[in-house]
Amino acid sequence: MARISFSEGVDLFNHAPLEELQQRAVEIRNAKNPPNRVTFVLDSNPNYTNVCNADCTFCAFYRHPGAKDAYEKSVDQVMEHLAFARRAGLTTVLLQGGLNDNLKLDYYVEVVRRAVHDYPDIYPHFFTAPEIWNCAKVSNKTIREVLQALWDAGQRTIPGGGAEILSERVRSTISPKKMAPDAWIDIHHTAHDIGFRTTATMMYGHVEEPEDIVTHLETLRQAQDVIPGFTAFIPWSYKRHRTALRRTVKNWAGTDAFFRILAFSRIYLDNFDHVQASWFGEGKETGIQALHYGADDFGGTVVEENVHRATGHICKTDHQGMLDMIRAAGYEPAQRNPLYDILKTYEGVDTVYVPPEGRVKEEDKLPIFEDCCQK
Ligand code: SF4
């Protein structure tokens, strides 16, 4: 299938019927990935600090230094989250935090070093591009020096958060203190050059125009052409409650917008292997339906999560819940790691989660989460 140009993309995104986008996206998804399979990861998303200097207007998570509920965790305290992940039978921890000027490179390296040494069974998927950018700035290091130090400590993948929409017009409106879109790309480029694999995200549904969304995808596609290294594209909608931006955003993105963006991104990002439709970001029912719009991955269990929670968006599941949702969509689940290596398949298996003998005490098992999503 021939690559579609930017102008063709804008036209397609604006005018194509959703059913047409869906059909094309599913064809591409099935050509790139096993048609019957949807992958997921057993993970948790704890935070090491909520102190941040960026004041993004879409964010309800951050606190200024000195705020009564501001926190900055020691390396030992961060390790407690990995211990929890181990006890819960998870394979991956996505660790992220605010842009905290008090934390220098030695802190980040020690977190990675301790995690890799003490928890070799937990995959460290740590620190988004803005955190790496701020770490370099406050540590008087280059981006490459920071990334190389994390690599040398044992980290191999980086989550793709902090991109929002890669458009200077959007950034200057919703997060003017944050690094420019070029810097986000440069960090991922440098990471790919060192050997990291990363994801790419997009937060839509605020001040962007359709052209900004196509610009975002075009920027990612070009970057992937130059130095491949993105594993997956992951879109989610802006969650407005308790954020400053909610006062100026008038039109909220709904379910159809999510399906359109998923299907269109699957068509446009012809050099990406995976597109994720997370059950978490848009809720379980929408997530299940979204698997029929070109996505081949369902994201993680996200056992601990505080960023969306700060906006009042709370959505929970567990291992069995992931299997049930993927099966409800008509697919076979397969468990993966952040490199998208398959760790386990479940053909013919109904009840699958048996914690390793002697590793999980009864009181340490995951709580039974309520089966609901709140927005
Ligand atoms: S989105 Fe990230 S960088 Fe922006 S204010 Fe929130 S924690 Fe800080």
Order of helices and strands: HHEEHEHEHHEHHEHEHEHHEEHEEE
Q: What compounds sit in this structure? A: iron/sulfur cluster
Percentage of helical residues?
25-40%
State the separation between the terminal residues, measured CA to CA: 39 Å
How confident is the prediction overall: mean pLDDT? Answer: 91
Give the domain tally: 1
Shape: globular
* Sequence of strands across the biggest β-sheet: 9-1-11-12
CATH architecture: Alpha-Beta Barrel
In angstroms, what is the radius of gyration?
20 Å
Structural class: alpha/beta
CATH class: Alpha Beta
Quantity of strands, as a count = 13
Q: How does the major sheet shape up? A: 4 strands, mixed
Instruction: Give the CATH H-level superfamily.
Output: Aldolase class I
Q: State which percent range the strand residues make up.
A: 5-15%
CATH topology: TIM Barrel
Helix count from the secondary structure assignment: 13
Poorly predicted ranges: 351-375
Structural commentary:
- With 375 residues, this protein is α/β, with parallel strands linked by helices.
- It has a single domain (6-348), classed as TIM Barrel (Alpha-Beta Barrel).
- It is built from 13 helices and 13 strands.
- The strands form four sheets. It has a four-stranded mixed β-sheet with strand order 9-1-11-12.
- Strand 7, helix 10 and strand 8 (274-275) form a beta-alpha-beta unit.
- Helix 2 crosses helix 10, helix 4 (105-118) runs parallel beside helix 6 (143-153) and helix 5 crosses helix 8.
- The two termini are 39 Å apart.
- Residues 351-375 have low confidence and may be disordered.
- Iron/sulfur cluster is lined by residues 52, 54-56, 59, 61-62, 98-99, 130, 175, 178.
